[in-house]
Amino acid sequence: MNTSLIFNEIEERLNHETKQEQQIIQHPEWREGVIWGKPRFGHPEGRVLYHIEEVLENVEKLNTNELTRQHLRFITLTHDTFKYKEHRGFPRDWSQHHAVIARQFSEKFTENQAILNIIELHDEAYYIWKLQRKPLQKKAAQKRLDNLLLRLDNNLQLFYLFFKCDTQTGDKTQVPITWFEETIKNIDIIIF
């Protein structure tokens, strides 16, 4: 694999808009993460780079203020970048989940707890949706949802916007986002 060609592709596909984004995109660990991936269910695009590009396209479709847009771009750049470092053994080591690693990496670039929490929790609504579908797991799913809402606090709308932008990519099932929109009452639903 010619990494210089791939790094040129990163520069071509992802135009940084801030110094912070530039620092992230130039970081060697981040670059290693975005070139990882092969086509698979939910991510037929393969490389994380292509997924980030799709999510950023969705962020551009939103009618948000500039600060929200910048937050969503930051979350997008780091949320899945560390899948290459994720523990995949059994039993699963959740402290080595890609979202936890992404949060730790992102702490080098921001102290904004809302952004960091959303990066860490970005897959949580999907996991809750899967859990609540199991007949004997309804209470566990509700407890997990309550914990998610508690951690998100006043940042529920930002979480939802990212969840929507992330879910409407590749060949991901749209049922979790529909479930979220029907279940959570304190969000402004968007359509794009």
What's the SSE blueprint?
Blueprint: H1 3-13, H2 19-26, H3 28-34, H4 48-61, H5 66-78, H6 98-106, H7 113-121, H8 124-132, H9 138-152, H10 156-167, H11 175-183
Helix pairs in contact: 4-5, 4-10, 5-7, 5-10, 6-7, 8-9, 8-11
Structural features, described:
The chain has about 190 residues and is an all-alpha fold. The chain has one domain. About 60% of the residues lie in helices and about 0% in strands. The chain contains eleven helices and no strands. The radius of gyration is 16 Å and the shape is globular. The mean pLDDT is about 95.
The number of helical segments is: 11
Indicate the overall shape: globular
N-C termini distance: 36 Å
Main pleated sheet: none
Q: Any low-confidence stretches, pLDDT <50, length ≥5?
A: none
Give the domain tally.
Answer: 1
- SSE sequence, one letter per element: HHHHHHHHHHH
Mean pLDDT: 95
Task: Please name the defining characteristics of this protein.
192 residues, single chain, globular, mainly alpha
Summarize the structure.
By secondary structure, this protein is mostly helical.
